[in-house]
Design goal:
Blueprint: E1 2-5, H1 9-21, E2 30-31, H2 42-61, E3 66-77, E4 83-86, E5 93-100, E6 109-110, E7 122-127, E8 132-134, E9 143-153
Antiparallel strand pairs: 1-7, 2-3, 3-9, 4-8, 5-7, 5-9, 6-8
Amino acid sequence: MWVVEFPKHKNLKKKLLSLIDEMPSGDTVKSDWDLPKEYNRKYLNLFYKEISDLMLEVSSKFYCDSWEIYNAWFAQYSKNDKHNWHTHPLSNLSAVYYLELPKKELVTEFKDKSKPKVKEGDILFFPSYLMHRSPINKSNKRKTVIAFNCDFRISNIENIDFTKKSFYGF
């Protein structure tokens, strides 16, 4: 698991939350997961534009020269909301951007009991096959995340000098 601070968080938080507020609401956890892919997600248009530089930086740390986000969605957890154990197939890495994180107890939990140290504004990257969940929100404050699945690619592994930087150097 790797935690990366999203440096544009403070400038984007209010705008992203405003655009998410415009999205239709579901029955339980508010999310756009079930909306058709063609649905206009203004918050994602902004998020993709603003995260591009960070994704290039992260891909470089993985010795990769390209990246792609396959899908992304938001989820807002109010009091007593949760998301049960699951994995994310068909991608290398999954990520959670903690747009609103009122309590550390609301951080993504992993079945292997690992506990990532994240704060609001961080993005947690982890292998997509890891079983994880969003714990029950026992607080009166809302948790909002933008989650996404992504791949990082290496086009020419022969040209990489693995001695020059630490692969795990986040």
